[in-house]
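Lab channel / #folding
Pinned by the channel admin:
"Please post every new chain as: sequence first, then the structure tokens as a reply. Keep commentary short and put observations after the output so the thread stays searchable."

First post following the new format, from NK:
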Amino acid sequence: MSIQSIKSKSGQTVVALDTAEEIGEVKHFVVSSDVSRIERLHIDGRRKKAVFAEWGDIESFGPDRVMVRTEGSSSQSEDERDIDAAKGKVELLGSRVLDTAGFERGTVTDATFDGATGQIADITLSDGRTTAAANVHSLGSYAVVIDVLDTT
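Reply from TO:
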């Protein structure tokens, strides 16, 4: 298991293994609505012309580069969630955090994930607390919803 930080990987150059050419940079992580895993990376373009790399095409996350299998690993998407991610409407980092009791708990400042599987391990809140992905219910355009935090 190779635990990676979304914050530290954002902005990294994406390189195709087959051509050794740069094909973009990590602009957004497209995270599943239940915040269980990363589905794809937004690596180039904007809005409806955004280009994505599917999780299955990612070979590795290096210290300063993301490697994808082939230059053809990237493509545009018609998926509404992908387009919303490219527009910054559905973004894990910076999202408002609400708990299941309706209280605002700050914002998401980082999240960690397994670099091999894309599974989200945890999220870090603006107050410094970390909560496991198992305690996260959903991510939408308004907020991330988490279980009520123990405040004792």
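NK: The chain has two domains: 3-86, 96-146.
TO: also worth noting, The longest strand covers residues 104-114.
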